[in-house]
Amino acid sequence: MHITLTEHARCLYDDAYQPVPGCGRAHHERNFVEELTFADADAILAMLRGLGPHVVEGRLPVWIRNLAYRLLLLQRPDEPALMREAADSLHLHGPDWDEIAAELRLRADALESGALESAA
Questions:
Q1: Are 85 and 108 spatial neighbours (Cβ–Cβ below 8 Å)?
Q2: By the 8 A CB rule, do 36 and 44 touch?
Q3: Among 6, 38, 45, 86, which has the highest number of CB atoms less than 10 A from its own CB?
Q4: Coil, strand or helix at 77
Q5: Is 59 helix (H, G, I), strand (E, B) or coil?
């Protein structure tokens, strides 16, 4: 087992930003997806930012990135900054998800404006 989700992703998908240490283990995507599914929000966010700090780059497959953001937002549903980050990723990786990206931005705006109105 890998020490972190980021390490597991790095071994499976490589890393565009730093050398990948040889691990010598057989890697199966289904094992990584299972680990991702049960990872906490901090581990998912560390993986996303570690392997793709510039949303448009990185070697994580788009479907893994989308799943990771979905799982992250399920754990942190009230964080506008994360919603916008997920929306940016969706928007950059294909027009199929533009409507979902727009909805995420609207939700983020609504959360922020509601938070600002509550504070006033």
A1: no
A2: yes
A3: 86
A4: coil
A5: coil
Contact between 39 and 5 (Cβ < 8 Å):
yes
Q: Where are the alpha helices (DSSP H) in 27-61?
A: 29-37, 41-51
* Cα–Cα distance measured from residue 110 to residue 100, given in angstroms and rounded to the nearest whole number: 15
In the numeric block, the tokens 């409507």 are attached to 99
Confidence of residue 39 (pLDDT cuts 50, 70, 90): very high
Distances (CA, A) of 58 to 10, 21, 75: 10, 17, 23
What pTM was estimated for this model as a whole?
Answer: 0.84
| Predicted confidence (pLDDT) at residue 3 exceeds the cutoff of 90 | no
